[in-house]
Amino acid sequence: MGRILAIDYGKKRVGLAVTDPLQIIATKLTTVRSHLLFDFLKTYFQQEDVEKVIIGYPLQMNNEPSEAVLYINPFLKRFQKLYPDMPIEQVDERFTSKMAFQTMIDAGVKKKDRQDKGTIDAVSATIILQSYMEQQKYRS
């Protein structure tokens, strides 16, 4: 069984989270600059057994894609071209940034550290991954 990697893709930064090899726990991995993501993924896929990639896909309240898909869709197209055998699933990411910020407050993270948008992106990716894992558990 391989890991599941979650991506919270943004124009400037990408938050990443990953499961353990048994797919029990979702953990914040890191944040990378968007233009360096494919270099990071190449290295990460060589070092780790990744079974599937989950990407946060931003929807509006009416379930229509948000404006952010203008830069997410080109990423998805390039990803599928470079990694045609890697399964990738889109997961609704509405409110994950707000939930990440609140989670950091609840965890007692200092105000200065909560202002680090990279940390928020990585926590958002973790929330996306955790919600995906919970959905899969209930489907089983």
Topology diagram in text:
Elements: E1 3-9, E2 13-19, E3 26-33, H1 37-47, E4 50-57, H2 69-82, E5 88-92, H3 96-106, H4 111-114, H5 117-139
Parallel strand pairs: 1-4, 4-5
Antiparallel strand pairs: 1-2, 2-3
Helix pairs in contact: 3-5
Structural description of this entry:
- The chain has 140 residues and is α/β, with parallel strands linked by helices.
- Helix content is 45%, strand content 25%.
- The longest helix is centred in the last third of the chain and has 23 residues, at 117-139.
- Helix 3 packs across helix 5.
- It is built from 5 helices and 5 strands; from the N terminus they run E-E-E-H-E-H-E-H-H-H.
- Strand 2 and strand 3 (26-33) form a beta hairpin.
- It has a single domain (3-139), classed as 2-Layer Sandwich (Nucleotidyltransferase, domain 5), CATH 3.30.420.140.
- It has helices at residues 37-47, 69-82, 96-106, 111-114, 117-139; strands spanning 3-9, 13-19, 26-33, 50-57, 88-92.
Architecture, CATH level 2? 2-Layer Sandwich
Shape: globular
What's the helix-strand series? EEEHEHEHHH
- What name is given to the CATH topology? Nucleotidyltransferase, domain 5
Report the radius of gyration as a whole number of Å: 14 Å
